[in-house]
């Protein structure tokens, strides 16, 4: 299911709110949404381990597909959306740690 972008009166588009996601997915209790039940900072964390944890939490979310579709449509600049990590509007496989990469990848 894809999320439709709402047309505003001035002809521009607006991203759907969480309430509109609920309307499209049926009535969903906020406690069932991992991004509402846990610390929201986790979905925008600097630590690769925290980002992976957020991605795992999204796997059981009842609005995961709607969240991902909406993030793709809006080209979210960063964060975990629908179980996927976004950077500069595109999905990337994993977050790289800060600092210089190791010379020998096998040591990582």
Q: Can you characterise this structure?
A:
[4Fe-4S] cluster binds at residues 35, 58, 61, 67. With 108 residues, the protein is of the alpha+beta class. It contains four helices and five strands. The strands form two sheets. Strands 3-4-5 form a three-stranded antiparallel sheet. A hairpin with a 5-residue loop joins β1 and β2.
DSSP helix fraction: 25-40%
Largest sheet: 3 strands, antiparallel
N- and C-termini, Cα separation: 39 Å
- Count of discrete alpha- or pi-helical segments spanning 4 or more residues: 4
Portion of residues in beta strands equals: 5-15%
Radius of gyration: 16 Å
What coarse outline follows from CA principal-axis ratios? globular
Count of DSSP E strands?
5
Return the structural class.
Answer: alpha+beta
The strand line-up of the biggest sheet is 3-4-5
Global mean pLDDT: 77
String of helices and strands: EEHHHHEEE
Q: Ranges with pLDDT <50 over ≥5 residues? A: 1-16
Topology readout:
Layout: E1 6-7, E2 13-14, H1 18-25, H2 34-37, H3 48-58, H4 64-74, E3 78-81, E4 84-87, E5 90-92
Antiparallel strand pairs: 1-2, 3-4, 4-5
Q: How would you concisely characterize the structure shown here?
A:
Residues 1-23 are annotated as: Disordered. The chain is an alpha+beta fold and 108 residues long.
What are the main properties of this structure?
5 strands; two-stranded antiparallel sheet; 108 residues; 31% helix; alpha+beta; single chain; disordered N terminus
């Amino acid at each position: 299911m894809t999320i439709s972008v709402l047309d505003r009166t001035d002809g521009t588009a607006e991203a759907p709110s969480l309430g509109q996601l609920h309307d499209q997915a049926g009535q969903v209790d906020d406690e069932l949404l991992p991004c509402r039940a846990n610390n929201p900072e986790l979905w925008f964390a600097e630590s690769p381990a925290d980002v992976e944890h957020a991605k795992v939490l999204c796997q059981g979310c009842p609005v995961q597909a709607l969240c991902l579709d909406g993030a793709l449509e809006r080209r979210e600049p960063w964060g975990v959306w629908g179980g996927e990590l976004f950077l500069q509007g595109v999905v990337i496989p994993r977050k790289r740690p800060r600092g210089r990469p190791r010379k020998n990848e096998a040591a990582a």
